[in-house]
Amino acid sequence: MGSISLNGIKKSFGETEVLKDINLDIKDGEFLILIGPSGCGKSTLMNLIAGLEDLTGGEIVIDGKDVSEESPKDRDIAMVFQSYALYPTMNVARNICFGLEMSKMPKEEQEVILKKVSTLLQIDHLLDRKPGQLSGGQRQRVAMGRALARSPKVFLFDEPLSNLDAKLRVEMRTEIKKLHKRIATTIVYVTHDQIEAMTLADRIAVLKDGELQQVGTPYEIYNDPVSHFVADFMGSPGMNFIECIVKDENLIIESGGQKYELSIPCKEAINNSKLDVVMLGIRPEMLTEIQPSAAKNAYIHQIKFDVDVLEPMGADTIAIGQWNDNEVMARLSPESGNIAGKGFDLQVDTSKAILFDPNSGLRIK
Amino acid sequence: MNNYKLSNFNFGRAFIYLILIFFALIYLAPLYVMFTTSLKDIEEIRSGNLMALPLDPTLYAWKKAWSSACTGSECQGLAPYFWNSVRIVVPAVIISTVVGAFNGYALAKWKFKGSELLFGALLFGCFIPFQVILLPMAKLLGELGLANTVTGLVLVHVIYGVAFTTLFFRNYYVGIPTELVKAAKLDGAGFLSIFRHIFIPLSTPIFVVTIIWQFTQIWNDFLFGVVYSGSGTQPITVALNNLVNTSVGGKEYNVDMAAAIIAAMPTLVVYVIAGKYFVKGLTAGAVKG
Questions:
Q1: A16 pLDDT exceeds 60?
Q2: Same domain assignment for residues A82 and A154
Q3: Which residue of B has its CA nearest to A74?
């Protein structure tokens, strides 16, 4: 068991309010990702859950029990740190067993757990080494082993992959996901990497300036963001934002020296908002070369596009140009990328396009 | 290899070595004079050259300095005072180092309201001149019934040393990542077990630095020794002073020199044995996990 309720969490350091009234329920066995730009308070929130910092206001409930005043060791929580925080003078085996040793578990039982954990993480050949003799990926595994050994109610991961190189990061990401599948323990995971968030999470909580912006599944966060901030934060390359004049429920854009009227799904919202200018949000993958197989409907447009810069990424090529003097990225196939240039024929699918109020940055629905 | 060596020779480097050797000789010259003089007999000292090697080396002066030279009215040599110094230095070094380690650990990793202020106040203790505290300390020792005792001197050195040892340990522990403390807290370790299992094993360099520093300071102390000791509890520095100032007949330079070397020997030995740790400890960087 390991459900967590955060009720009205507040945290201030002196005059600075770091967290402002956070309310969040995390289900038992859930993989929840806290994401946000640096300084948004996500690590502080994690330290609060662990009990390493004192709350300024609100309460933390784990499995129906208010633990706000309890010390870290009584909360039955394990944490994996960004720097791994392995004990430098102890070997791997003792690092993993240190928590068990502190709880006065008999040696024989410690050995059993050590064997199980080290086999699971494939570090059984490293047990006699000191952390200084391990590579980054191995340290990462030991840090996870130390957390696993105590089989706690909740795991906290504080940007665990950010010190690894790109390839290893992808590998460990998969391992963490497999691990979660196997042990099915609640995980709260802090990151600022939106790909990690999308790939790992059951639910993502987006944090900005100490406030929760949105909590939802990766699909919801990606396709149905509540604000310009969330939409901008998730996705790589990021969503295109274009300020457009509204004309008869359609949006006017200028591309490749010509004017087009784009038809979009949320017509009612435009009418209700009574705005003359809205911000169109559309993901780069909806801007492609002409797809002959695409169903013909009102949301498929064909427009001319002047490509300024091409960025081949291997699997696809990002073409960068301008609409209404706003930078726009289109995601082309590598073959189309090779021939793209001035006046390229672009297919624009607005079926998933969303609109924002250009002043407040909030969604228009 | 020869080519390599030849090409590496240049006059700038040779010049630097010459200068270094020159200054090393200047600094070592007094030690040389002391050592050779201590091996000469008094006739040779009077008639011979100061820099000359002893013609007929003898340990007479060393024996006398150690066991029979007069320090004031007593004529037992330096031996009893040497052991006095040991009885003062050993407990004072151990206690001040242990207290400093605890203080430093608490001030670096368990911040509490006013901990920075407390650290500032302790730091201030490093800058208080000895002379300022002579009278109040004498009064305190009197009140405690520790005047003229070895225990009293130990107490004085502990109090005076804690400011330095705390500073050393605090600054060393600040460089140890706080995340280690957090991880250990989550593992269920408390204030003392974190100190014992995580910080102490990391502390060898700073222990060596602190012990050398404290040993040298306390062994070489003269002022506290002369003020707070009684006739039987004087440390070796005070006895050396008395020995040199007591003359029966002519001045025995050879005995004075031998006595001075005996008094300085322990700090030299400590530095030679642990000196490389001293330099290492002072420059030790952050601990990589």
A1: yes
A2: yes
A3: B188
